Each structure stands twice: as C-alpha cells, then as structure tokens.
C-alpha cells in the first residue's frame, strides 16, 4: 500500500500571553484617556458659566406698582377764579410689605396728599420742573412714617397717570 503523507499545515500561532497583556493595557489606556477627556470637556464648559454667575450681581427684583385712586382738589388762586387739579398717581414700591402698609394706612396717605396738593398754585404746576418737584414732594410726604416709632415707608418713585389743571 502506498502511503502518502499530506503536508501538515501549521496551526496559526496563538498570540503569546505577553501580547494579550499589552493589548488589554492598551485598551484600558485608551478608555481612561477618553474618560478623562470627557470629564475635562464637560467641566471646562460649566466652569465659565458658574464663574460668570458668581461675578454677575443678582438681578434686582421687579418693581411693584401700586395705583392710587384719582383725586380732585381745589388749588390756591390769587385771581379770584377757582382752579382744580385732577391727579392720578401710581407709586413704585420695592416689595409687597410696603404695599400692605400703604393699604392699611390709605386714608391717612390720601389725606396727606390732598392737603399738600391744595397748597399749590396752578402756575407752580404748569412747567415740567414744577411737576417733578411735586413728585419729589409727594414721595417725601408718603415716605413719612404713619405711626410714631415705625420705619419710613420706602417709596421708590411717584408716577403721574393723570394730571389736569383747570
């Protein structure tokens, strides 16, 4: 019988244990680098936002506007004619607590305003400067404490919503 021997194919050499260790270490280094880069990327994006938020002053609270009912008052007159002032006011306040104080003492506040207005001449109120001076006078007048020993009422501004001199 004839025997033929077939050439035996060599089995592929399996990588040695050293190559496997190097491959695992290389994959671990790439994963750690990617994780570090991701952390740096997200932290660098958030750091300027946090720094700018700390550096920027807090936004002031929105003002509170408190409208008063329109008032009509007789003005002083030297010419013998009767002059009237119809005025509408809105107060600019800092907080709701001030609004509550004004609401609680509204009859007293309105009385102060009416007495102060009746003390003016129509000629004083006609120019723009006269109106500005009246607004400052009313602001000071309203800011006065309503009760002895209490703190002054904080009125930021007095705004005219109606102003008719007749």
Automatic annotation (TrEMBL):
Residue ranges of coiled coil: none
GO biological process: bacterial-type flagellum-dependent swarming motility; chemotaxis
Pfam families: FliL (PF03748)
Alphabetic keyword roster: Cell inner membrane, Cell membrane, Cell projection, Chemotaxis, Cilium, Flagellar rotation, Flagellum, Membrane, Transmembrane, Transmembrane helix
Predominant localisation class: membrane
Source taxon at top rank: Bacteria
Regions that span the bilayer: 21-43
Endpoints of the signal sequence: none
Bilayer disposition of the protein: Single-pass membrane protein
Family membership: Belongs to the FliL family.
Function description: Controls the rotational direction of flagella during chemotaxis.
Protein known as: Flagellar protein FliL
Organism: Paraburkholderia monticola
């Amino acid at each position: 019988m004839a025997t033929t021997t077939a050439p035996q194919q060599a089995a592929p050499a399996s990588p040695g244990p050293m190559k496997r260790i190097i491959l695992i270490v290389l994959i671990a280094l790439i994963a750690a680098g990617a994780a570090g880069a991701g952390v740096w990327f997200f932290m660098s994006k958030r750091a300027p936002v946090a720094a700018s938020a700390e550096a920027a002053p807090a936004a002031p609270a929105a003002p509170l506007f408190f409208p008063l009912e329109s008032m009509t008052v007789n003005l002083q007159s030297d010419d013998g004619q009767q002059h009237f002032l119809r005025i509408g006011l809105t107060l600019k306040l800092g907080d709701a607590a001030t609004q509550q104080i004004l609401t609680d003492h509204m009859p007293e506040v309105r009385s102060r305003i009416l007495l102060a207005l009746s003390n003016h001449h129509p000629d004083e109120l006609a120019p723009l400067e006269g109106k500005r001076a009246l607004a400052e006078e009313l602001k000071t007048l309203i800011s006065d404490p309503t009760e002895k020993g209490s703190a002054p009422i904080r009125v930021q501004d007095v705004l005219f919503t109606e102003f008719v001199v007749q």
